[in-house]
């Protein structure tokens, strides 16, 4: 126990002395949450639009003011001829233009039917389709209200409800993703590097010639990173609850348990890498390509797995982060309990034991 | 030097597949002796040393170190030896004091012992004012001497030194050897590999390995006499020329 304490203390010295790395390790989750939360959002807010109102009646002006009142659009300018639309697009000032034809209000009143043209800048297709959706939604809303007291025969109103994330906020998606990414980076990469560094420096030889058991070396190496991960998970959850208003709907204890399970899986993978390589560079390269890239690409966090070709869908099952991501989403956002995620938990635990067994076996082979 | 044997090796052999790295070597090392373990690169020195320090199991033969069997009691062997590798083995990003505390800690020394003894050796090395400095800021010579002090901090019966003076200037090498003599005088057996033939002259007895075998083992004086050589350098060259195996 005394040996073990001395070893853990030494590991903390290494980590605390390397201020720059420590800063990155603790600052990274904060940075990522802030970047994903405020900069890299796929929600579109305050887009500049132009309005060409050829009708100028009560109906158009109330519709326009409604559009302006929404947080999605800012009316950059009013234009007065159809030709100006393209000019304004080319000048790059607007993303969308609304065109009301002459007699819009009258047509609406007398024929119960009027047209609005929505012109969007589709050089960015995602933004264009999101904006046209928002604009038509506002127009539909307006229409609903004015037809409210007239009874139209046989209309079907579809009513959509977005469960668990009614405002369709991106944060619900990336908070679990960032958690998976950060844990992966801290645990896999850092453990792999810290063990391989001992080999490179020649201190591993001295440690193996000392009476401390190899198992204790491995555990002592992992302890500080386990703690660091706990701090990181806590800071991500605090930020997401208090800054991004993403709630933790499920049990916090269950979430912590699953996070520790995933952390252990990453640590085991880091140890496996470190016992199969001899240089820090190789260890870093393997961790990044073997773990970090698949985590980003194949966990379902950036790109939906359902849209992938079948072979990639199959491969994605081998990525531990995919399962952790599913679990966190279910627990945090849907608020489910262990009964709905036991399968994922079981798979993750299986991966953990497999990687750990491999790592220990490799480590022992080296000793013989 | 006494007549107590602290290391005995009898027909010790290590094979890796079809390759015989260490080929039936037999020798004894006595308490307080400085035992030089010489050989060209690839002659099998490191493999032999690994078997004796409990890091690697022999393929055949028997050996005991500090009274413990290398097959069954390698954990006990590890407690009773010190080890310093050819690569520098202190932590650069830890202070002098932290390094001492760490290594003493993994050998299970008590806090009281660590405190008293580290004060003593820091004074001997004239490092007491540098105790809180990071090891990376020390000159190489000091690091090497400190590494040796750390390797024998827990007062082992035997210390294994694997090319301890590589890349060190002559003055520091001399100081280093005076530390080795001091350790030997206090009863610690020193088992040292080296490439410097002048250092071989400092040893009580020297063994020379060629192609996994021990081809010569005696005092430096006796070796020079029987090989009709003026220096250990000449003895070594005469033996090493017979080698078939080349380095790695």
Verbal overview:
The complex is a heterodimer of chains A (368) and B (248). Chain A folds into two domains: 2-40 and 169-367, no CATH class; 47-146, abc type-2 transporter like fold. With 368 residues, chain A is α/β, with parallel strands linked by helices. Chain A has a four-stranded mixed beta sheet, sandwiched between helices. Chain A has helices at residues 2-17, 19-39, 58-69, 82-90, 104-111, 125-146, 171-201, 203-209, 214-242, 252-276, 280-298, 310-316, 320-334, 338-367; strands spanning 47-53, 73-79, 96-100, 117-120. Chain B is of the alpha/beta class and 248 residues long. Chain B has one domain (5-240): 3-Layer(aba) Sandwich (Rossmann fold). In chain B, the strands form two sheets. A six-stranded mixed beta sheet of chain B has the order 6-7-8-3-9-10, with helices on both faces. A four-stranded antiparallel beta sheet of chain B has the order 2-1-4-5, with helices on one face. Chain B starts with a strand and ends in an 8-residue tail after the last helix. In chain B, 44% of the residues are buried. Classes of the chains: A alpha/beta (368), B alpha/beta (248).
Q: How would you write the strand order of the largest sheet of chain B?
A: 6-7-8-3-9-10
Rg of chain B, nearest Å: 18 Å
- Using the 3D structure, state the CATH architecture of chain B: 3-Layer(aba) Sandwich
- By DSSP, the count of extended strands of chain B is 10
Shape of chain B: globular
- Helix tally of chain B equals 9
Residue stretches of chain B low in confidence (pLDDT < 50, at least 5 long) are: none
CATH level 1 class label of chain B: Alpha Beta
Q: What is the count of distinct domains of chain A?
A: 2
The CATH superfamily label of chain B reads P-loop containing nucleotide triphosphate hydrolases
Please give the oligomerization state of what you see: heterodimer
């Amino acid at each position: 126990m005394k040996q073990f304490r001395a070893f853990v203390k030494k590991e903390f010295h290494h980590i605390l002395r390397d201020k720059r790395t420590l800063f990155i390790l603790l600052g990274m989750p904060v940075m990522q949450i802030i970047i994903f939360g405020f900069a890299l959002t796929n929600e579109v807010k305050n887009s500049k639009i132009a309005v060409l109102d050829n009708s100028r009646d009560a109906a158009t002006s109330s519709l326009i003011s409604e559009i302006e009142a929404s947080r999605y659009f800012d009316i950059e300018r009013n234009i007065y001829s159809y030709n100006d639309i393209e000019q304004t697009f080319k000048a790059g000032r607007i993303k969308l233009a609304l065109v009301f034809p002459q007699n819009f209000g009258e047509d609406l009143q007398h024929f119960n039917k009027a047209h609005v043209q929505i012109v969007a800048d589709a050089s960015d297709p995602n933004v264009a389709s999101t904006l046209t959706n928002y604009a038509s939604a506002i127009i539909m809303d307006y229409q609903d209200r004015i037809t409210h007291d007239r009874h139209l025969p046989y209309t079907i109103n579809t009513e959509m409800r977005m469960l668990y994330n009614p405002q369709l906020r991106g944060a619900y998606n990336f908070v679990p993703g960032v958690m998976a990414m950060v844990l992966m980076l801290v645990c896999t990469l850092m453990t792999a590097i810290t063990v391989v560094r001992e080999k490179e420096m020649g201190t591993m030889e001295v440690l193996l010639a000392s009476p401390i058991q190899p198992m204790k070396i491995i555990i002592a190496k992992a302890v500080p990173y386990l703690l660091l991960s706990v701090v990181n998970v806590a800071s991500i959850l605090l930020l997401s609850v208090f800054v991004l208003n993403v709630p933790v709907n499920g049990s916090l204890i269950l979430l912590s348990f699953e996070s520790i399970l995933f952390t252990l899986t990453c640590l085991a993978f880091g140890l496996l890498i470190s016992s199969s390589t001899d240089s820090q560079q190789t260890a870093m390269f393997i961790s990044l390509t073997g773990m970090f890239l698949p985590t980003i690409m194949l966990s379902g966090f950036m790109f939906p797995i359902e849209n992938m070709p079948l072979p990639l869908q199959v491969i994605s099952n081998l990525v531990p982060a995919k399962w952790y991501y599913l679990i966190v989403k279910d627990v945090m956002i849907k608020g489910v309990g262990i009964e709905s995620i036991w399968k994922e938990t079981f798979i993750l635990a299986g991966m953990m034991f497999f990687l750990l067994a491999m790592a220990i076996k490799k480590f022992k082979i080296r000793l013989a | 030097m006494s007549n107590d044997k602290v290391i005995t090796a009898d027909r010790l052999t290590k094979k890796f597949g079809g390759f015989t790295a260490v080929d039936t070597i037999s020798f004894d090392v006595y308490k307080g002796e400085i035992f030089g373990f010489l050989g060209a690169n690839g002659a099998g020195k490191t493999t032999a040393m690994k078997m004796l320090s409990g890091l690697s199991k022999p393929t055949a033969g028997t050996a005991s170190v500090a009274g413990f069997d290398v097959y069954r009691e390698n954990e006990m062997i590890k407690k009773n030896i010190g080890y310093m590798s050819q690569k520098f083995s202190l932590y650069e990003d830890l202070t002098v004091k932290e390094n001492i505390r760490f290594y003493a800690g993994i050998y299970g020394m008590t806090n009281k012992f660590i405190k008293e003894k580290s004060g003593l050796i820091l004074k001997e090395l004239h490092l007491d004012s540098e105790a809180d400095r990071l090891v990376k800021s020390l000159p190489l010579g000091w690091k090497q001497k400190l590494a040796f002090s750390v390797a024998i901090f827990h007062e082992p019966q035997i210390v294994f030194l694997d090319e301890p003076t590589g890349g060190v200037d002559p003055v520091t090498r001399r100081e280093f050897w005076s530390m080795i003599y001091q350790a030997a005088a206090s009863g610690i057996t020193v088992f040292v590999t080296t490439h410097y033939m002048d250092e071989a002259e400092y040893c009580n007895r020297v063994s020379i390995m060629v192609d996994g075998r021990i081809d010569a083992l005696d005092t430096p004086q006796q070796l020079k006499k029987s090989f009709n050589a003026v220096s250990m350098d000449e003895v070594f060259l005469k033996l090493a020329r017979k080698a078939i195996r080349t380095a790695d």
